Amino acid sequence: MTMTPTPPPVAVAETETDAVATPRPKSRSRNRIRAAMAGLLSLVAAVVVARSAAQDTRIDQRAVRAMTSLLPGSIEIAKPAPEAPVPAPPEPAGPSADARLRRDGYSTIRGGVLYIPETFASQTGDYDLLLHFHGNVKVMVESAEVAKVNALVAVINLGVGSAVYENAYAAPGTYEALLSQIHNAITQRGLQSPALRRVGLSSWSAGYGAISTILQVRRKTDPLDAVLLSDGLHCGRLPERPSELNHRQLAPFVQAARKAVTGDMLFAITHSDIDPVTYVGSGETASYLLDAIKGEVEPVENSPVAPEHLHLKSALNAVEPSLEKKMEPVRDVRAGGLHVRGFRGQTREHHSAHLLQMGATLFPELAERWNKR
């Protein structure tokens, strides 16, 4: 509150006509009239101020000062009442949904296992699922933890070659049955009120075959939000034109790429320089996907940056130390949610590096997307 001194009344000079035509009252009469007028003005001003304050606490201070200049003494100008503080969000009632979640060991699911990484947490029971096809189980779990992916991790290993993965999910409903089995497993492990929020499908090498089939036959009742392919998108050649790749085999991935460029999902790919000779390599298929979406959005070429080289405990002795390869980038192209990264290398060890370094290449992108949405 501030006190504003009221200026003294301004003296009004009498004109010569007033002095002659108006007889001056006696001194006592003038005092009584002035007192009465001052009292009346005080009463009127007080009523006006009270009504204005009741209607709006944000009174025009200049108007109040002008009004109070007619009154003796001074008036206290009220400041606007402070706004009430925004209440903090209420603390969740009861314990967290994962308070009694059993995290040790793993649960067996069809074709693989389900792990609960150290990075998984759920306050309400909602959970994300990273479903990976083909690759060392513990490497995948540790890679998700290093990348800080807050999700359950299921790893499926069915054998050698993409055909076994393609055939495993060809029957409609097989993929949905797997999701249901995972849901039952996490329920039995103690997650309260579980609800599947998002699914990310990832693969290394031949595991892409499972994703290819799932993209074609899924009932679209699952919240699929990401596809991650690590050096493993392949296809054959057209029988009638052996120089051309079989675009029909890539059709489900082209559809996923088109969805990704709009931001509706994440579709991230890494590829090497390996030429399998008898079928199309991952570098050529990645280029085909980029060409397929050029009419919808112009891909952006970025300066390739080498990812951090991870030394996973689970990967010790997986590759002879003298043969271990680092990821040397040669291509980095983005188009909305589609991201293609190419790396140098044509050996088996280079191919293995794509699996061992998923925690530095593909999984961080998934973590970034899921942590902010």
Could you describe the 3D structure shown?
The protein is of the alpha/beta class. The protein has two domains: 1-9 and 30-82, no CATH class; 107-371, Alpha/Beta hydrolase fold, catalytic domain (Rossmann fold, 3-Layer(aba) Sandwich). It has eleven helices and twelve strands. It has helices spanning 16-21, 27-55, 61-68, 137-146, 162-168, 174-188, 208-217, 247-261, 282-292, 348-356, 363-371, and strands at 2-5, 74-77, 107-109, 112-115, 126-133, 152-156, 195-204, 224-230, 266-271, 300-301, 329-335, 338-343. The protein has a ten-stranded mixed beta sheet, sandwiched between helices. It has a two-stranded antiparallel sheet with strand order 1-2. A hairpin with a 2-residue loop joins β3 (107-109) and β4. α5 runs parallel beside α7 and α8 (247-261) packs across α9. The longest helix is centred in the first third of the chain and has 29 residues, at 27-55.
Instruction: Count every helix, treating DSSP H or I runs of 4 or more residues as helices.
Output: 11
Structural class: alpha/beta
Q: Hey, roughly how much beta strand do the residues contain? A: 15-25%
- Oligomeric state of this protein: single chain
- SSE arrangement, N to C: EHHHEEEEHEHHEHEHEHEEEHH
Radius of gyration: 38 Å
What is the 3D form?
A: globular
Mean pLDDT: 82
- Architecture per CATH nomenclature, i.e. the level-2 architecture of the largest domain: 3-Layer(aba) Sandwich
For this structure, what is the CATH homologous superfamily of the largest domain? Alpha/Beta hydrolase fold, catalytic domain
Low-confidence stretches: 1-31, 40-81
The helicity comes to 25-40%
Give the termini distance in whole angstroms.
Answer: 46 Å
CATH topology of the largest domain: Rossmann fold
Number of folding domains? 2
Number of strands: 12
Biggest sheet: strands, sense, closure? 10 strands, mixed
Query: If strands are numbered along the chain, what order do they take across the biggest sheet?
Result: 3-4-6-5-7-8-9-12-11-10
